[in-house]
Amino acid sequence: MLTGSKYGLYTFFCVCFLSASSAYAQPSDSVGTNRPFTEFWTKPLIVPKLGVGVQDRLFVEMGVQWHSIYRHPLTLISKGPYCTVDLFIKQSNVLVGPKLGYEFTAGLLGAAFDVTYFIDHNYNAEGANRKAWVATPKVGLSILGFADLFYGYSIPISEERITSISRNRFSLVFNINTYYFDLKEAPRRRKG
């Protein structure tokens, strides 16, 4: 049983402990304003999109992407529509494929979908041309959206077919966004 001076000493320590903890506590209105890791989307930027791949034969992919990066404490996410051209060359045959698509990556995984209009120049002995539409879903590995290693499967969506290339494709594509090199200072999209 606490009596006399022991009760006063106990009360003194309790008051000191409670007042000290409230005196050094962080005010509730400052929570979250000075975090070491901030989350934000960068402003979209038109960036070069360059790559190589194989679809029975080697091809080069060149174009641009309207690219945004989301900075999160755990990873980076990137997204954006793109417009590129696939170029296949084999002896006298030239296969050109302008395309429109959309790409989304999160950390080490990515996916894309594009629609390509292939023009197969001089595909036969008479020098005739073939034209065909193809839709290609792609999935694969990504290095935070900067470099993508994708597998895609081309699905014909027009009457005419391009039979000189396989439906299976592997590609390594680089999205050359300068924001990756200094993400902390990259312009940010306004919240709204």
From TrEMBL:
Keywords carried by this UniProt record: Signal
Q: Which residues form the signal peptide?
A: 1-25
Keyword Signal applies: yes
Q: What is this protein called?
A: Outer membrane protein beta-barrel domain-containing protein
